[in-house]
Amino acid sequence: MIRKDVASLRVPPNLADHDAERRTFTWAAARAHLDGLPGGGLNIAHEAVHRHAHGPLADHVAFRFLGGEAPRDVTYSELSSLSNRFACVLRGLGIGRGDRLFVLTGRIPELYTAVLGGLTNGTVVSPLFAAFGPEPIATRLTLGSAAVLVTTTSQYRRKIARIRADVPTLRHVLVVDDDGSGPIPGTLELGPVMAEASDDVALAATGPEEMALLHFTSGTTGRPKGAIHVHEAAVTHWSTGRFALDLHPDDVFWCTADPGWVTGTSYGIIAPLLHGVTSIVDAGDFDARRWYGVLAEHRVSVWYTAPTAIRMLMKAGPELAHAHSYPALRFIASVGEPLNPSAVWWGAEVLGLPIHDNYWQTETGGIMIANTPALDIKPGSMGKPLPGVEAAIVRRDANGEVRIVDAPDEEGILALRRGWPSMMRGYLDDEERYRACFAGDWYLTGDLATRDADGWFWFVGRADDVIKSAGHLIGPFEVESALMEHPAVAEAGVIGKPDELVGEVVKAFVLLREGFTPGEALRLEILAHARRRLGAAVAPKEVEFVDTLPRTRSGKIMRRLLKARELGLAEGDTSTLESGG
Ligand code: WT7
What we know:
Elements: H1 18-24, H2 27-31, H3 44-53, E1 61-66, E2 72-75, H4 76-92, E3 100-104, H5 109-120, E4 124-127, H6 134-143, E5 148-152, H7 153-163, E6 172-176, E7 188-189, H8 190-196, E8 211-217, E9 225-230, H9 234-243, E10 252-255, H10 262-274, E11 278-282, H11 288-297, E12 302-305, H12 307-316, H13 318-322, E13 331-335, H14 341-351, E14 355-359, E15 369-370, E16 384-385, E17 391-396, E18 402-404, E19 412-417, E20 426-427, H15 431-435, E21 438-439, E22 442-451, E23 457-462, E24 467-469, E25 472-474, H16 476-483, E26 489-499, E27 503-512, H17 520-534, E28 542-545, H18 559-566
Parallel strand pairs: 1-11, 3-4, 3-5, 5-6, 6-7, 10-11, 10-12, 12-13, 13-14, 27-28
Antiparallel strand pairs: 1-2, 8-9, 9-20, 14-15, 15-16, 17-18, 17-19, 19-22, 21-22, 22-23, 24-25, 26-27
Bound molecules: 5'-O-[(S)-butoxy(hydroxy)phosphoryl]adenosine.
């Protein structure tokens, strides 16, 4: 246990007494910290940017973009103006409220302007991960009825050109020329249209329950699910930014997640802006040496990252860390996959600060359970439910009824009592899968966990077959489907194979069609095929040929059994598969 003493913290934490605040907190009181719009409306872009642009924070830096030749600072007033211009561009194209805007770029300034400009216009925004291949992109654009896409010329040529005809709803593509390749027929170059656009544009008077963001996530079976998030979600982003990330007005905050995943939007864009802090945006991929340099040089004070990154830093050795000092750094949090207790301690030893694990999902829209600054840390635990959040461990009894497990340390499904503002309002066009997430008032996360006698929650594993690789959620069905499009593949079963560094790697078991023989050349060809279609973030790292795939009586591939075999467990003993996540 790492004991905390509030008096010894350099900056008094926003949440000095976790349990006391939980007793008095109300969402209505949190909501009062936002402006709202006349007539009961709410717009995330107004709360995050425009209100600051007309107040004392106008000239405060909102984002410092790294990755170009020199850092580029964008103030709140500039960000507001750029977002307005982008909203004006959308309006000029006939894109309005409720229409769907997708963004597929790296972490460049235009991504942030497009997201905030889209929200300003009342347009629904869905950021996609730039390391997705054409297949996952096409699936999401189609499911989301994309009307407009912002991307780069390099992404367009490599991925969008070949799938564009498959997405008939897509009316406009705006491109950022990132490779000097010049105009592409059928697209509009973003730079020139932005230059012509006015920044005097009326904010869309969105209602709090109006759809704002669409984040795709994966399940065990079927197509990806589009989690619907509304403008009201900003209330959770505000309160969790305050309590779980302990944001203070003069902080320099660095969320390392990409907005293609929900963390990069909720906490890489919205929460820090709501609090008026300066955020670092680094366009580059992980690099231990550079990351330490960013922390030191830009005087990051609050850092939100992921277990895989921390494990990679641990692996890089303490010398790299000690090449700099970090006098500004005062709070480190992590999310997305299990955080090893040794990583918590590593932070304390090497950086002088323990790592604070927290827990949430695409569906919950914001942090639910967290190790907050003043709370003692039990390394390996996700912490306690935040103010406004009620969590429980539940189980289904013999009649299928969901019962709360009161006894401590008993494993069950982690459930959250519905009612927090950032909870998804549905899965797009999939009422059935949405409804299946609930038992009465309880939202069932699909994660297995325990709660100890003191109220700390401990992650045990996923209750489904979804794969977590480097913090990214990957649906085995999407991978299996892409594999089966290869002419040699008859069937495929895909699992997450435990990996010390990235948590799990995607591994595929492949059954070949009649007439094809297993061999190294074919194995490499299938790997390359998957990578081309799915992109590096989703494609399997390993392919193994098999003679049969285990199936249930109803014909479903038993991924659990494949995993048990992979781990060398007795085939009957799939019960332990959940542990280790
Ligand atoms: C799943 C959600 C976290 C928001 C962004 C990812 C796993 C999340 C933890 C944690 C162990 C964790 C769960 C969860 N997860 N946080 N602290 N410890 N596992 O959202 O991609 O929807 O993934 O990530 O399995 O259900 P996501």
